[in-house]
TrEMBL record:
UniProt xrefs under InterPro entries: F420_OxRdatse_Rv1855c_pred, Luciferase-like_dom, Luciferase-like_sf, SsuD_RutA_monooxygenase
Keywords: Flavoprotein, FMN, Monooxygenase, Oxidoreductase
Any one GO molecular function term: alkanesulfonate monooxygenase activity
EC number: 1.-.-.-
KW Transmembrane helix (keyword) present: no
UniProt domain Luciferase-like: residue ranges: 20-257
Keyword presence, Flavoprotein: yes
Protein's organism: Streptomyces sp. R11
GO terms, biological process: alkanesulfonate catabolic process
Pfam families: Bac_luciferase
Protein name: LLM class F420-dependent oxidoreductase
Phylogenetic placement of the source organism: Bacteria, Bacillati, Actinomycetota, Actinomycetes, Kitasatosporales
Length: 293
């Protein structure tokens, strides 16, 4: 099982002037630790469940581009982009640019969006949940069409209409940037994973719950005629062991997931100083998990 880190706070003690150096240090620490994944949130406002909406929040893809310039091996992505945040053609172009400039290390993490306050705050339309899922599926189709060099042409959907799906330069990833669909909704989200996803991301709520979600995903794969084993399975672990920095408790927590074919556990610390967290906790976690059967 591999280890990733999800940067979800930007409340560094040095405030805005310190963030560039902190992120550069986090990138260097991620490389030195042998992390396989480094992600940021894609939100306009900080999540209220993570403290206060008024806390610092950087734009995700600007931040990922900065991290791309300060790393060379770790995979980069947003965990995850809300489908409502950007028009789908623009999103595909942004993800392509990240893939090109990172040397083929971009993942498009995407979901149906949920944070109504930030949409209302910045004047971004936030349609009902059923429509957001319709838009999510159309966005996935648009991205795949834009990443197919033979498919430049119009796209006509219920919510999106594109006269052209031109995307030059093409992504470096073959056949396209990895698509990671976040969430564990059993009727819609996991069906979309089976139909379009290269990876999924679930909360590490419990081994039993994750096993159930993966069984549901397997069923959708059977329905869609998709090879379940083609899909990379990841979990986000932001539990108390990670927050406290208790490596022994974390190792005990995660051991039961080794039987579930989880490729990567993504750690979600609540700190504005991720470089120190990576050095002090994530790096030893890489070694611990490498030793788990």
């Amino acid at each position: 099982m591999r280890v990733g880190v999800h940067i979800n706070r930007f409340d560094h003690p040095g405030a805005g002037p310190a963030l560039g150096a902190e992120l550069a240090a986090a990138g260097a620490a991620a490389e030195a630790a042998g992390l396989s994944w480094l992600s940021v949130m894609d939100h306009y406002f900080q999540m209220e469940t993570n403290d206060r909406a008024e806390d610092p929040m950087l734009e995700a893809y600007t931040t990922l581009g900065y991290l791309a310039a300060h790393t060379s091996t770790v995979r980069l992505g947003a965990l995850v982009t809300g489908v409502t945040y950007r028009p789908p053609g623009l999103l595909a172009k942004i993800a392509t640019s990240l893939d090109v400039l990172s040397g083929g290390r971009a993942t498009l993490g995407i979901g149906a969006a949920w944070y109504g306050r930030e949409h209302e705050g910045l004047g971004v339309p936030f349609p009902p949940v059923a429509e957001r899922f319709e838009r999510l599926e159309e966005t996935l189709r648009i991205c795949l069409q834009m990443w197919d060099p033979q498919a430049n042409g119009p796209f006509e959907g219920k919510h999106y209409r594109l006269a052209e799906t031109l995307c030059v330069p093409a992504p470096l990833s073959d056949p396209h940037p990895e698509i990671m669909i976040g969430g564990g909704g059993e009727k819609k989200t996991l069906r979309l994973v089976a139909r379009y996803g290269d990876a999924c991301n679930l909360f590490a709520s419990s081994p039993e719950e994750v096993r159930h979600k993966l069984d549901v995903l397997r069923g959708h794969c059977d329905t869609e005629g998709r090879d379940y084993d083609e899909i990379r399975k990841t979990v986000l672990h932001a539990g108390e062991a990670v927050v406290r920095g208790d490596l022994d408790a974390f190792t005990r927590d995660i051991a039961a997931y080794t039987e579930l074919d989880i490729d990567t556990v993504i750690l979600g610390p609540r700190t504005g100083e991720p470089a120190a967290f990576i050095e002090n906790f994530a790096a030893p976690a890489v070694q611990r998990l490498a030793g788990l059967d």
